[in-house]
Amino acid sequence: MVTAGQLAADALVDLGVEQVFFIAGGHTYAIQQGLTNNGVRMLATRHEQAAVFMAEAWGRFTRKPGVAMVTAGPGFTNALTPIANARLANSPLLLIAGVIGLGAGEKLDLQDMVQCPAIVPMVKRAFVCQKAERIKEFVDMAYRACITGRPGPVYLEIPVDVGNTKVDANMVKKVGTIPDDRVVDLAKASTMVEMFMQAERPILIAGSGAYYSEAGDDLIRFIEKTGTPIFTATQGRGVVPDTHPLCFESSSVIRPGCACFANMNADLIVLLGNRISLYYGCGDFLCPNAKIIQVDIEPEEIGRNRFVDLPVFSDVREFIKECNRIVDAKKYGDVMKRRFEPWVKELRTQEEPMKNLGKLAFESDQYPIHPGRLAKEVDDFMNREDDIVIGDGGDTQIWMNMARTSVKPGHYQESGLFGCLGMGIPYAIAAKLLYPEKRVLNLIGDGSVGFNFMEFETAVRKNIPVVIVINNDKGWGMIRHSQNIKLGHAIEEGTEIGNIEYHKIAESMGAKGILVEKAENIRPALEEAFACGRVCCINVMTDPKEMSPGAMVLATIGGYRVEQK
Ligand SMILES: Cc1ncc(C[n+]2csc(CCOP(=O)(O)OP(=O)(O)O)c2C)c(N)n1
């Protein structure tokens, strides 16, 4: 006889789970014991939010569900923010939560709350296992739901009495099937190729669907044989390297480059596992006359915010493979290449003045330090092939996004559409745990760093040497700037933070602390931080007056669109 908690742990191991992030609680002992018995690596954080962010990051990096476990009631409620983040970012993530016993409802038991309905709108599926013998089936269903179709977060609730129940392992059904077929619409591939033959100014935009389907190599083959320019977005950043002659970096319109020009002047736009979200002005930043092809693994996603001329319900990689086969068979490649060449040249011409504009920030040696210069120093210092950079904050994340050169997928991370501050330190810890050989750095705003600051202690305790660089403008910069634009002034309460010596607080937890006040000292500080082999906090004092283009855009569109009365 074994506990159902042990069986749940066995099922997770059978599915290949090697790492769980958690905070212990009385409602999850049985599974914790089971996982420990099975040799699963357990990392205890200082806040459930951090544990779930770590699991989310793990899922993003590995393309398999990251697993977090929390206790009932407050453990559960603390876990919700990263779940919502994962939902909007399509991250494969499994949250296991304890809850009061099945027989304890309405008794005013400790940590009582009705959890499942609260999380339903945030997850792909929510499961409650009510019978100990069926626990393996539930682990299996939950895990599978994270990764079939479009990845996302899934919730599995195990009442404390169910987890503690002893069952005869021989009576438990054998489960554990993970389908690995990929859906592909072969007929639409020839339609797409014919549409390319009619186009003069096509662009491809590769999003997270290109990343999760591992479409990089096939995409490179496609653009090289057809001469089509490509942009990358969100998790798709790096699937084709920024340095490729046909890659025009991020499709973000605020990155110094030609994305805005391309989006508004293309005659054919192909969205590959990429949603028409705020990043494209919810469709308004895509040329109204362009033909749109949208390839997505989630049929209901196709057509959001914009009429789509060719909807393709398909896995990105398999679809592009088929397009490659057709282009080869019909010997269309050279015709396309010749036709698209002037367009590619035009894009290169258009991006130059924008890049020069970006240099004003990136190369500034002003005092106090320009935050754009700080982000560029990070980009130059961190090896683009191997190192991992994480951006977190308002303006801070925008600067890092603008500056980072992506040559490999998964190596630059930020929250995504949920715009959630505070994920940076947990993400960095998960990254370094997964890839001990890589250098990992998080550039984070001084507001954002407060959310999960205690995770410095986690990193020190577990000897996970991450480098956390704080862009310290002594305030909630993006809000300060957008209030200035919107209201004509910044409201002090809620935008000012003051001068906190973060490097000293981190030192008190066992990390190394460095203060930087001049631009020329940024690089030596980065060298010292990585050379010391310890967790390090670099507190960089930057100019509170410098505003990112993101703050400007957000003050005028998107969530700020509603007029003040
Ligand atoms: C969890 C969370 N709380 C509040 C916000 C609203 N918000 C967006 S940007 C921002 C300011 C961030 O300040 P900081 O981290 O210091 O970065 P900076 O903008 O100064 O670079 C705030 C409060 C948010 N996006 N997420």
Descriptive keywords:
six-stranded parallel beta sheet; binds thiamine diphosphate; 565 residues; 20 strands; single chain; alpha/beta
Q: Which strand order does the major sheet show?
A: 3-2-4-5-7-6
Bound small-molecule species:
thiamine diphosphate
C-alpha end-to-end distance:
66 Å
Judged by helices, strands and strand pairing, the structural class is alpha/beta
User: How large, in whole angstroms, is the Cα Rg?
Assistant: 24 Å
Low-confidence stretches: none
Instruction: Profile the largest sheet.
Output: 6 strands, parallel
In short:
The protein is 40% helix and 16% strand. It is an alpha/beta fold and 565 residues long. Residues 393-396, 419-422, 445-448, 471, 473, 476-479 line the site of thiamine diphosphate.
3D architecture notes:
The chain has 565 residues and is of the alpha/beta class. It is built from 22 helices and 20 strands. The strands form four sheets. The chain has a six-stranded parallel β-sheet with strand order 3-2-4-5-7-6, sandwiched between helices. Strands 11-10-9-12-13-14 form a six-stranded parallel β-sheet, with helices on both faces. The longest helix has 30 residues. The mean pLDDT is 96. Bound molecules: thiamine diphosphate. Thiamine diphosphate binds next to helix 16 and helix 19.
